[in-house]
Design brief:
Strand content: 15-25%
Mean pLDDT: 77
Shape: elongated
Number of strands: 13
Helix content: 25-40%
Distance between the termini: 119 Å
Largest sheet: 8 strands, mixed
Oligomer: single chain
Low-confidence stretches: 36-129, 135-148
Length: 421
């Protein structure tokens, strides 16, 4: 009995000694690991994602590699720089480590880690897990785009509901009175339907000069009209700087070029719109046409009749492909008239035909304005269109961009389009 007790006591002592030895070895290992774990280049390859490649978001099968260096980079940096005491100040910490890219070049890593793009598997040692959590707390997520899987909205209906005839208020109003009237519209006159994905992305290009009395009326009418049609759109008022004769067509070329710069991926189609014309029926869809569409076929001041079959002025719609294929508008029409007929000939030359809604839908109200002086060279220029359109248009467009200002209800583009000598 006593011998058994002594033997049991000796076994416990032996086990205690082994546990003590394991504890000492574990403490030594902790010291060794804490001094070197994060400078190991294989480990860092998984732990720190390069700023130019954020697609690899999960850490897998982290291997322990002998010879790990002895300093934890971020903590060491904080100790060397006592002024950095708040850990949220670590926004972009550059490490002196390089990685080979696909082009075999080397670039520094940037520590930009978030909870969304680092995941540790259950097989990862507990110590490594704790260290990684500490590092994630040191690095701020400020300025990073969260990886949120937002549900995609369904496509908007091809024919939005409850469209029909509307009235126009031609009473003059001040622009300041409507500057904040439509909170749904984003800065720059941009709008996208909140409950569905728009089928059409449309830039409304409006050539402009000395029509202050029309601008507020136009914006006050067009925004609710366009929002009802569930399209994504932006309104661009393109103003001609200087004192030369008005050149509507060249301004529309400028509007095309500058509007494309304002949207990632560009716009799908373009509606070139006189500021004194207001649509009277919401079924007149400001969408991307299969064929170039003459929108303003029926105007009140013209007794709602089409003046002639080839007319393409007032309001017209073209896709990006259609507009670029005909080289845009001519740049040579200074003064009133001719540029819309020139576009008709360009489209016909490229085998397009002009589409129109029926006259009861393509109805517009015209605001009163002073007539411009006709262009005396318009007929001469029109006689040469079929021969010269490929050398006169977007390919030869020159202008000086004076300013681009994003107001709440529109983007204001100011350009000097005078011809350089």
């Amino acid at each position: 009995m006593g011998a058994g007790g002594a033997g049991g006591g000796g076994g416990r002592a032996a086990r205690a000694l082994r546990l003590l030895l394991l504890l000492v070895l574990a403490l030594a290992a902790v010291e060794y690991l804490f001094g070197s774990i994060l400078d190991a280049s294989p480990f860092r390859t998984y732990l720190y994602t390069p700023a130019y490649n954020t697609t690899q978001s999960t850490i897998k099968n982290i291997e322990r590699t002998p010879g790990w260096p002895k300093k934890l980079s971020i903590i060491a940096a904080a100790r060397k720089n006592p002024k950095v005491s708040n850990t949220t100040q670590f926004r972009n910490v550059t490490f002196n480590t390089t990685v080979s890219t696909n082009s075999s070049t080397k670039a520094p890593f940037i520590a930009n880690m978030t909870r969304q793009n680092i995941t540790v598997e259950s097989s990862t040692p507990f110590l490594i897990t704790k260290i990684m959590e500490g590092i994630k707390n040191l690095v701020t997520t400020e300025g990073l785009s969260p990886r949120i899987n937002e549900p995609k909205l369904p496509l908007c209906e091809e024919m939005p509901p409850d469209l029909g005839p509307i009235t126009v208020n031609k009473t003059e109003i001040e622009l300041d009175d409507i500057a904040t009237k439509y909170p749904e519209v984003h800065r720059g006159g941009r709008y996208a339907p909140p409950n569905c994905t728009a089928r059409h992305k449309v830039a409304i290009i409006v050539p402009y000069r000395d029509r202050q009395q029309h601008l507020a009326i136009f914006l006050n009418h067009m925004h609710p009209f366009l929002m009802k049609q569930q399209i994504e759109y932006g309104i661009f008022i393109v103003e001609q700087d200087g004192n030369t004769d008005f050149n509507r067509a060249k301004l529309m070329n400028v509007g095309f070029m500058e509007s494309q710069k304002q949207k990632a991926g560009g716009w799908q189609c373009f509606i070139f719109h006189d500021i004194d014309l207001l649509p009277l029926d919401q079924r007149n869809l400001y969408s991307c046409p299969r064929q170039p569409r003459h929108m303003s076929a029926s105007i009140d001041k013209l007794n709602f009749r089409l003046p002639y079959e080839e007319i393409f002025g007032g309001v017209s719609a073209m896709t990006l492909e259609q507009f670029t294929k005909v080289n845009g508008f001519s740049n040579k029409y200074w003064g009133w008239g001719g540029e819309d007929d020139d576009m008709f000939y360009r489209l016909k030359k490229m085998n397009y035909h002009i589409a129109r809604y029926k006259m009861s839908i393509a109805r517009y109200a015209m605001l009163d304005h002073k007539k411009s002086a006709p262009n005396p060279k318009r007929y001469q220029l029109l006689s040469q269109t079929s021969k010269t359109f490929q050398k006169d248009g977007l390919s030869t467009l020159e202008y000086d961009l004076v300013d681009v200002v994003q107001h709440h209800l529109y983007t204001h583009v100011i350009a000097n389009i005078d011809e350089h000598s």
